[in-house]
């Protein structure tokens, strides 16, 4: 279902970026079709631009520096169009006119950045989102915090892996009152209008601890994984066994023909090859909690 | 990354029957998350977290879904390419390599079909899926920069050119030359890294399992391995065994077992079908004739020439001399090599033949031989007009465009350069012996300044002349593979113009027949090259053997007619796909 993956279109990426910059308090200072300019607050600047020494210098020497402006294009057309504009504007600006001839030669007008999957800036932005969006504490906008039932939401990334992998994202909720465990929790919550809420208010109704709820979630996830079809794993295991057998037969067939000294070398080589084969084919199931949230829900959900 | 098996407490609330045992242990990663979450809650306890925190949480969820290594219906890498679209055969190849070959494969596309792109797709896909972090790319020194550019620009893979002994450990994706990697102190460093993926370009350099190249690559730790070569087999089927053993030790048994089970002789497979079947499991080969690409059309023209009287006399006398020598050498069982050379040179140009005649003269002990050689040299000196050179000047005058001229011989090359310059045509040489710097320089000069490049080296690694649309084959290599490699220099991916190839052929010479055999009868360009260099059943590709065979025919035929007939019979037998009778083999 690759086409259903998010952020595959320029429109989605643009909406994503706009939501991000609004959330982190970066002002949009210019906009055109499929193009935005954002002025970065210092903390965001540090996360999105890769220049630790610059910041060290700025902070050690107490410099006052102008905020960075990101010029983001979401389509190639927009990038081209805005580059022309940026260039024209730069060359017409008074600061350019004051440059000496030599300086003019080395002058480079600003250019836009194309925001595509895997581009430097977009990757940085994703990383920033990943660290800023790990945790939350929320309740429905229209509910009184004291009348909600607290839940722990755990979003886990499941990786089924042999020489190839497949991942999925599960969201499991555990009720902190009655220990009920529910799948597909994020989707249910996401549909409601939520607002941040002080955790202590939500937790006042809790009967069981977070650790206990978390354990219930892990047990639930493991139970679900155990009932999944495991054909892929059995097949990977079979490939692993076949390959190991082949390596074994191969090296055994070489042994009679070599000297004692070569034999030792071959044994070492064989151990390494077997290790590589295991590393490659051994089926694994990895579970990684990636997001956690405290969610208050109205008693009747 | 910390991971440990999560403690599994018996759960009294579950009374359901125990499901069948999981064949796979479950690993919980980064289990410290809960503590971090509790710390977050404590830090904000009585206050609501910032208003935007929920937005960021939902954006994070979107990002997580976007970065998921989803199912394998389609390459994830395709969504991460900007500014270029891989060709269908390249995408298909990358998919097959990952899905069916499990990341261990020989990529053996014909020259110019984009093996680098295929490898790039595979590398990118594994990196996006988090299966490859550390990758080693071993290429000839001359291709290091090209690889770096391709991976950075097309695939946005952050790769580093190896600079010193620390580079291997320091960077995740390292591009280096095989020659450096096999020397200390690098070798130890290379072998000590846990590489996830190893790529070797020009992997035919690994055909000998006793070579230092092969021994090195065999020792490098790896999970996935790609071997790239346009010619996985050059002379001998055992070369294939060497490559496959790197990918899958034991796949074809030990070298001895392979020989006894699969081969009649090193060049003849016992059961081509079975062997081919086994090969398709580890090797992908795309060919032009399969419609792998839509390159612009290639026009091939045979330019027929008639020798001048003086040239004709010289040619005939040299031929008579060759026949005599051939007979004597056959009886004495001495090497035919100088004769093959002379035979081919006389086809190239009188000038080229003169060099060899003079060499033979110097070495000759026998008085009679010396005097006949002296007479030949004298005849050669009387040649005043050079028909082929005149024709080249003609063609160039008509083109008014850049042109590459190929010849097999240094002597011809020098002579051509001299003649071109005398006519005021700018030209630079290119040959295998040049260092990399000089090669680049000449290529650059040709691209920017001069009209003609006169080259002796066809297989020259990494010389790409897409900006040129004309090629003159002053003489033809007798090995069809080499001819295809020549043409691949200009007729390759990236060529946007139709290309024109002129093959010079002098009437009533051996060359004329060979040109006809290679080009007209067999239509090798469009059709047979795929069969010809196809790996299995390829006892014929040995260039030496092929040349020797032609010399044999030329020297033992009664007349032109008989030679022609026998040559074509040879062609039929050699190039007919699927029909490979053993009786066609001849004693070496």
UniProtKB/TrEMBL annotation, chain A:
InterPro entries: YqhG. It comes from the Bacteria. This is YqhG. It comes from Alicyclobacillus cellulosilyticus. The lineage of its organism: Bacteria, Bacillati, Bacillota, Bacilli, Bacillales.
TrEMBL record, chain B:
It comes from the Bacteria. PROSITE patterns: HELICASE_ATP_BIND_1, HELICASE_CTER. Gene3D superfamilies: P-loop containing nucleotide triphosphate hydrolases, Tandem AAA-ATPase domain. Residues 388-533 form the Helicase C-terminal domain. Residues 96-250 form the Helicase ATP-binding domain. The keyword Zinc does not apply. One of its GO terms (molecular function) is ATP binding. The keyword Hydrolase applies. Keywords: ATP-binding, Helicase, Hydrolase, Nucleotide-binding. InterPro entries: DEXDc_RapA, Helicase_ATP-bd, Helicase_C-like, P-loop_NTPase, SNF2-like_sf, SNF2/RAD54-like_C, SNF2_N. SUPFAM superfamilies: P-loop containing nucleoside triphosphate hydrolases. This is ATP-dependent helicase YqhH.
